[in-house]
Design brief:
Elements (H helix, E strand, L loop, with lengths): L2 E9 L3 E3 L20 H5 L4 E5 H9 L10 E4 L11 E4 L2 H5 L6 E5 L2 H9 L3 E9 L7 E2 L9 E8 L5 E7 L15
Parallel strand pairs: 1-6, 1-7, 3-4, 3-6, 4-5
Antiparallel strand pairs: 2-8, 7-10, 9-10
C-alpha cells in the first residue's frame, strides 16, 4: 500500500483556507531562505494526489510546480490542457492504484481528506500551525472516523510556525521519525 501523507498548513484556530477557499494568508510566511522544510519533504515524495479545487487553484498560481512528479487529481470532470504527468481519477482508491511502493502527498482540502480518512488510507500527518487566527474558513478536519495518532516530531521554526508530525498509531514505525523531538 502507498504511504499517504497529509502535509498541510493551518491557522491556530484550525482553518486551512479562508471561507472563499483562498490561501493568500500564507504569503507573509514565504520568506527568503526559509521553506519550512518543504524542499526536503518534496524530495521524499513519489506521487501527488490532489483534489479538483486545489488543482484549479494551483493552476491559477502560474506554471505547474510539480513537473517531475506524477500527479493524480480526484475529480468527476475532465482536466482540459492538463500538464504532463497529471491524470484525472474518480476516487481515492483509484488514485493510489499502482503506487504501492510510493510515498504519496495528499494535497487538498477537507473534502479530499475525508475520502482518504474514511478509507483509512492516510498514514501520516504533517500539520504546520501558522501563528495567526483566521476566525472562519475551511476547517482542517470535518467529523470523521477516529484515528489514533502517535506524535513523532515537533519543530518550532524561527517564523513562529510549529510543525507537528503524527503517524497513525497502527502504521508501521518510521525509523527516521521514531521519537518526538523539539527544536
Amino acid at each position: 500500500m502507498a504511504e499517504v501523507v497529509y502535509y498541510v498548513a493551518a491557522s491556530v484556530d484550525g482553518y486551512i483556507a479562508t471561507p472563499d477557499g483562498a490561501v493568500d494568508w500564507l504569503s507573509p510566511f514565504h520568506t527568503a531562505g526559509e521553506d519550512h522544510g518543504y524542499a526536503a519533504f518534496l524530495a521524499t515524495i513519489g506521487g501527488i494526489v490532489m483534489g479538483r479545487r486545489t488543482y484549479d487553484q494551483v493552476r491559477g498560481f502560474g506554471p505547474w510546480p510539480y513537473t517531475a512528479i506524477d500527479c493524480r487529481v480526484v475529480t468527476s470532470r475532465p482536466l482540459p490542457e492538463a500538464p504532463d504527468r497529471v491524470t484525472p481519477v474518480a476516487s481515492p482508491v483509484e488514485a493510489l492504484a499502482g503506487w504501492a511502493d510510493r510515498r504519496v502527498w495528499l494535497v487538498g482540502g477537507t473534502t479530499l481528506l475525508d475520502g482518504f480518512r474514511a478509507a483509512k488510507l492516510v498514514r501520516e500527518y504533517h500539520v504546520f500551525v501558522m501563528p495567526l487566527l483566521l476566525g472562519a474558513g475551511v476547517p482542517l478536519f470535518h467529523a470523521g472516523p477516529p484515528a489514533h495518532l502517535r506524535l513523532v516530531r515537533v519543530d518550532s521554526l524561527p517564523s513562529g510556525v510549529v510543525e507537528f508530525r503524527y503517524r497513525v498509531a497502527d502504521a508501521e514505525p518510521d525509523d527516521a521519525m521514531d521519537s518526538p523531538a523539539s527544536s
